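From the pipeline queue, job 12 of 40. The input is one protein chain; the requested action is below.

Action: predict structure.
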Amino acid sequence: MTRVSLYFAVLLAILSPTSGRALQISAEPEGATLTNSSIHLKIEISELDQSADTAEIDILVDGILLQRLSLAAGEHRVTLKQANLSLGRHTLRIESGDTVKTIELRAMFGWLSLLPPVIAIGLALAFKDVVFSLFFGVFAGALLLNHWNPIVAFARSIDQFIAPALADSDHASIIIFSALLGGMVGVITKSGGTQGIVERLKTFASTARRGQLATWTLGVVVFFDDYANTLIVGSTMRSITDRLRISREKLAYIVDSTAAPVASIAPISTWIGFEIGLIAAAFDQLELPFNAYGTLIASIPFRFYPLFALVLGFTIASTCRDFGPMLKAELRASRTGKVLNDGDKPLADYDAPSIAPPENTPLRAVNALLPILTVVLVTLAGLYVSGREGMIRSDYSSSFLWLRDVFSNANSFHALLWASLAGVTVAIMLALGQRILTLKQSLEAAVGGFKSMLLCFIVLILAWSIGGVSGELHTADFIVGLTSGILQPRWLPVLVFAMSAAISFATGASWGTMAILMPLAIPICHELALSAGHPVTSESYYTYLLGTISSVLAGSVWGDHCSPISDTTILSSMASSSDHIAHVRTQMPYALAIGFLGMVVGDIPTAMGVSPWIALLLGAAVIVIVVRWLGTRSDWQPTESILKES
């Protein structure tokens, strides 16, 4: 039978009680289509017969019984695999005694679930118009989900996907704190604070090499959150790198290659709680005798992609040597001074007249440093406060582990909202207190900062909409299903990395990828290791486990790092004021090379018993040698007269 996906024409079906029965059941599809011949249902039993503890439910397709369930009262998620339906229309029946409900299904090929993200990414890379490409990807998904009716699909694109993407509370938080941070950048630019930082850093960042190293170092220092990292580092260093003729593509690359990679491996960050929660849930399910946090820390040396990404970023920054499209961008910037290519459209325009400083404005770095420092400190304080509120109790006596527990339970979105609001407030107060700007000028500058990021917000919303389409089509389930039955213990880490990278790239969601794969990868690793004769207490079992967990985390970072529809990739382009597609095109070769190196030097050898530290040293040596001997220098050395003029 051909693998197919199932499209539900009915979003909600209610099974009403009949013949005096007290049984009440509701059922709805988990997403509108299901891949690999699987049917995903959410069944809720709100009331049972008084004489029964469970309800006996039969699920049939075209009169053939697929599964018989005995369910207690409550909500249940049910996956029916190997339905093996032919293309066309089918009838699904849910029966419980005299209660029957019929749902019409339409079967289609599972590979169609890949079309929306593939279309969006392909069009964006081909035509360099990210808004049109993303919307067309959403429209393609709506076509699949609405019987190929273009008029209905066009209308449903906005209400079925785009509006819900914006209505999501976490997404709205990202929009708001990004807007507030953009407003802060507008105010500190208008008040001369940004130029003040440039003047202060002229002594150190006097060459392209030093400017890139300063950017990389700041990216590593702001380790606690990837969103805060991109927005702070990009907006702070942009004026400096422009003066040193470093392309916006290079700035966006350095920002992006230190954001998620650093936050994902930091022992204390906004990622840590989510990662621990996924691992702990799988351990509890399998009754494994391992500590989730300890296992997560032990997996850090096995996370080759984020570690190699940091090494590559530092090597390129310190040598000013580049390859491929990035070399072309750097040569353009260093020789002509054009930090943006002709025709490029930066996601944010921080050079707009509305936020340009007036003549004779005092250039004081404190007017930028204090708001930025406020954002950092309030973010950390917010993580602490929200973490304490969310933490039930900690059994650890060590202050370090206790702080880790606090961060694990923190609400990063709340902390970033507080921080961005505090940052723009401090920026306005400084401008008013020194009488550099009037209240009207300060507010106009803040609004100018908001306006400068409108394109970024549109791209973010459309990217989230693509994620919603992928969820409805169960794109991730299809990708996971392609690898079922071919996994072996020693090949598991590298295959899991490839699977995680593919899902993250296609959906643009690193956390979503982790949430999908971690509950699957750990049990698969457990069963494969036991069947191969490796007991839970053996060192080989723990090695497979660490390799599998690290591959899920590292692969999700790869997709987050380089997917055109990833929010952190978009934010990196926005904070660096870079053309988004130019950022993706120049970064992609580096990401692909490091991902391949991590698999060949790291995932495969360590699964066969090689120490991860040897793999890390070997990989780092390969990176340095390749960059040093095959890369081409692109740095431009400014003369004293030009430095004085700038």
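Job complete. DSSP finds 25 helices and twelve strands in the chain.
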